[in-house]
Design brief:
alpha+beta
Length: about 150
Amino acid sequence: MSLEVGVNSYVTENEADTYFDDRYNGSDWGEVPDTEIALVSAADLLDSAFSWYNDKTESTQDLEFPRNEETDVPQKVKNAQCELALEIHLSEGAVLLQVPKLIKTDKVTTEFFLNSSAFPTHIKNLVTKYGRFKSNTDNAVIPVKLER
């Protein structure tokens, strides 16, 4: 699957490149081996890590934004996706790791909850106006299917 704005990403690769052109850590972005995968992973994690305020503009849309009958995605959400994509690379994926909460062997699923200490504060702060981070104490369970 390739990156597609509105389906699995809030930004294009060109938008991310432009964002990092104006940032001190822009050279780090140039070291990311697959920016498309990093951006798609960041959008997934961003959407699942927050309880977003208001409703999706269209109930059938793939991503959490736009919301509240808006047609555009807030720039801070786009910036957060870019920053999170870079953080995934710099942390070698550690920000994606989630702590196991419960294992249901009868369904062959493992449930995980977000490790709030691994999620970068500066990214949380970018989007705090639009939603609340699901911390460990929120019982924010994300089911993950294990396939054999």
